[in-house]
Structures are given as structure tokens and as C-alpha cells.
Amino acid sequence: MENVKKKNGFASGIGFILAAAGSAVGLGNLWGFPFKTSANGGAAFVFVYIACVLFIGAITMIAEIYIGKRAAANTVASFRNVNKNYGWVGLVVMFIPFLITCYYSVLGGYTLKYAMNSFQGNGGILGTFSVNVGEVILYTALFLAISLLIVMGGVKGGIESASKVLMPILFLILVFIVIFCLCLGEGVSAGLNKYLNPDFYAFFHDANGNLSFNGLLAAMGQAFFSLSLGMGAMVCYGSYTGKEIKVGKSVAMICIFDTCVALLAGLAMFPAIGALLPEQLNSSGGVGLMFAVLPLVFDKMGAIGQIISFLFFAMVAIAAITSVISLVEVVTQLIVQKTKLTRKKSALIVIALAFAISVPVGMSLGKVAILETNGINLFGFDLLTFLDEATNAVLMPLGAFAACFAIGWLFGKKNSVKDWFSPKTLLNNLKEDGLDLGKFGMIFAVMVKYVTPVLVLFLDIAGIITNVTKNPNYWFIVGFALLLVGACTAFYFAFLRKGDLGNNELELLKEQQLENK
Ligand code: PFF
Predict the structure, then answer these.
(1) Is 6 left (phi over 0), alpha (psi -120 to 50) or beta?
(2) Any idea what DSSP says for residue 120?
(3) 502 lines ligand 1 (CB under 6 A)
(4) At 482, which helix (H) or strand (E)?
(5) Which of 86, 231, 361, 454 makes the best surface tag, with the fewest CB within 10 Å?
(6) Is the CB of 111 under 6 A from ligand 1?
(7) In angstroms, what is the span from residue 413 Cα to ligand 1's centroid?
């Protein structure tokens, strides 16, 4: 059995780490992190972000990977494996990546367009490209088609092989671009200053000088999104790991890699803006940074700028592809294991559905990009914002909470009331079950039981309150998210609580039988 399980999963530890890092490193690092840092007090944000990675991110990631690893099955089966009444969480966390795919692939399409258009110059094209619905749809389709091909190839042949090639390329391009940008001469230090000067006042205050938790919420949310947590991706990838993979060490490497890439991205962008477009330094935050400001910076570099632009957007596209495949895999894994469909057909269904939804999202985004407000919207939100907020601000922290709760409270033998509250008992249960984190075991047990879930709930509730206060229509987003949770729960108890959910090993057997036919 062990032998078979091994085959239907990552072939090597490094393959798993690169694939998980590939999931983590994406638009969140290359685009989100730099502008959030500059908008929230520079290095002050970086310090808090790193604390969030350590105290929330790494702990949740260990919990998620382990939940998948011990079940070696899809997310519903993995959560059900912890507790029979808890499998609905697996269904919820399968919908989150699906919803993210619907907008992430539109942005992925943008990066492909910008990469291919680099030699014509991308300065100022955002306005025309983003409202050219046909072209936006075409590039979204191209982006999804590449992802489809990889996921169809399976975990070892598709995801692992692609990640092993693409991640080193991404890193090399990034290092090259950072060195290039740091050598741009005058203005580089102004850019670095804008990016990294720690300003705790800005971090804890809003634009009007009032005390605000927005910086803190941004740092926590960014840690989740960037590390691909709270949405089944790490549960799913974890399920494909064998005994030889050490969870603690892998998580440390993934977190370090992800954080380094985020920091390096800022180290490239801000010096370049400072040197070539200094007037944009203070307005370079927000969505415009990557698709409006950077292309102007590349234009200013002259002929070499076209090459740098191509390398840059190709790198971002690679990062987005290795991320989106993890999103698609979560859903594909469940379909292929629960139904009679093959992996290829399952992946095709997921991609086709995501594409259908991404079309209105792309149309809606075009209007946002050129700052018109009358695009397609839901309750006053453009579709990208709607999906992004429902997943990032409401559902993902819930998903992460659920993973910590599963390991911290539902897991293992408890013979007395005292056992329920004792991290020591949890530690022993984990060790007995096969998770040995060495000298960090006790820290993990305390964190996953008491600290991380509280912080995550704070993020969720404080985020919702802040947003609802700003705009009461935000309740519709919260309502949508809760409705989804309710529907998944009902569906689980009606149809999935009992019975066969399939697993990785059976998936392999099924594929082998089909091949032999
Ligand atoms: N971590 C990715 C990023 O930083 O862009 C986004 C992402 C990928 C989120 C995969 C969630 C996920 F499952």
C-alpha cells in the first residue's frame, strides 16, 4: 500500500517543497506585498508580516499539510478523517480555491498579455487592453489552458515536473532583475527609503491620523493569501506526500522562500520607480503598480527595458501559473476521487466552469482598471472585489481557523477533561500519530491550540467589522460567504458524511485500470 501511495504523489521531498512554494509564490508576493508594504509603513509592515508568517502562517501550514498527509485523500476525506462530523470543512475549503481561480486567472491572463506585448511597449496599454473584452477573454483562456495541461498531467508528471523547472527559473529571473534595478543609479535610495523605512505611525494610523488596525489586518491577510492557507491547497498537496517528507522542515523552507520572494519583489520595484519615475513613488500603491506604473518604468529604460519587461512579466506569469495549478488541483482531486470521471475530464470540468465565471469577472475588471464604476457589479462591488473579499477576508481565515481547530481540539485521544485543554496531551497524540516536530513540538501544540486560532478569528471578525462600517453593502459579501458555508454543510451531512469519498491510492488504481483497458 505504502508503495502505491508513494507513486501517486510527489516523487521527492524537494519536488513537494518546490510545488508548495510554487503555490505560495504568486501575484500575492510579486504584486500585493510590495504595494501593501509601501502603503502601510514600510519596514514596520515587514516586521509584522514576518511575525504573522511565524505565528499564524507556519502553524496553520503545518496543521493543513498534516491533515492532508495523514489521510492521503481529497480535502473532504481529509477533514472527515479527523472527525466524522467535520468533513464539511473540506467541502468549504474546496469552493474557496474555485472562486479564487475565477479571478486569479483573469489577472494571470493580464500577465501573459503584458509578457507577450513587452517588445511593443506596455506603457499606457492598461486602459485599452482591459476594456477589450475579446482580448481579455482570450488571454484568460490561454492562461487557464496552460494550467489545465499541467493539472491533467497529474501530481508527479504535471505539477511536480512543472514546478521543478519553473520555480528555479522564476528565482533566477527575480535575482537578475533585483540586481539590475539596484544598479539604476540616482533615485534608487529614494525608492528603497519609501519601501523599507519603518514608519510605525503610518502602520497604526489611517490617512486621517486616526488609530487603525488596517495595517495589522493587511499583514495578517497577506500572510494567509501569500502562503496559500485556509483554502485546502496545502491540505491537498500535503496529501500527496509520503513518510519520507518532514512536515516541519518543509514548512520552514516554504515560508522562508515565499517571504524572500516577496521581499525581493519590492527590492526590484521601488528602486526602479525611484530612479526612473520618482513622481510615482508616493502614488505607486494599489492595483495600478504592476499594470500601469511598472510598464512606464520599463519604457523609460530604453531598449533594454523591453527585455526586462518581458523577463519580469514572464516571471509573474510563471508565479501565477504555479499558484493556480494548486487551486485547480484541490477541486480536481475531489472530483476525480469521488466520481467515476478521469483526471483529465475532471480537470477539464473545473477549468471550463472557472472560465465561464471568469468572463464576467474579466469584463468587470476592465472597468475597474480604467477607474470607471459602471461595470458589471454585485451589490455595488465589481466582481473581482466581490470574490476577492468573500474569499480573502471572510472564508480563508475561517478555513485556517478550521484547520487549527481540527488539529488543536478535535484530534487524538482524550481520556479526561484535563486532556482536552492540555497541550502536552496534544503533543503526545501528535507524536503517536506520526507528527514529530522535535524541539518545536510543544510550541506548535500551544500555538495551534490557543494562540493561532484566536488570532485568526480576530482577523476575520475585525476585518468584517471594519469593512461593514465602511460600507454596509459588505454584509452581502459576508452573507454570500456564510450561505456557501451553510450549503456545503447541508450537502455534506446529506450526501457525504457516510460512504466512500475515494483517496489518492484508489485514484491511482482507477487510472491504472483505465490505462489497461
Ligand atoms: N499564494 C498565491 C499568491 O501569493 O499569489 C495565491 C494563492 C495560490 C492563494 C493558491 C491560494 C492558493 F491556494
Answers:
(1) alpha
(2) T
(3) no
(4) helix 474-491
(5) 454
(6) no
(7) 34
**Domain span at 72:** 2-95+154-287+371-516
Full-model pTM: 0.95
Q: Which atom of ligand 1 is nearest to the CA of 233?
A: 13
C-alpha cell at 210: 486616526
Q: How confident is the model at residue 512 (pLDDT cuts 50, 70, 90)?
A: confident
What is the tally of structural domains in the chain?
Answer: 1
Classify residue 410: in a domain, yes or no. Answer: yes
Which residue is associated with the grid cell 459588505? 474
**504 Cα: distance to centroid of ligand 1 (angstroms):** 23
Q: Is the CB of 57 under 6 A from ligand 1?
A: no
C-beta of 108 in contact with ligand 1 (< 6 A)? no
Instruction: Judge if the beta carbon of residue 280 lies within 6 A of ligand 1.
Output: no
**pLDDT digit string, tens, across residues 215-254:** 999 999 999 999 999 999 999 999 999 988 999 999 999 9
Return the minimum-mean-pLDDT range out of 209-213, 401-405, 418-422.
209-213
Report CA(219)–ligand 1 centroid distance (Å).
Answer: 15
Residue 114 lies in a domain: no
Contact of 114 with 313, CB cutoff 8 Å: yes
Answer yes or no: are the C-beta atoms of 245 and 13 closer than 8 Å: yes
Classify residue 318: in a domain, yes or no. Answer: no
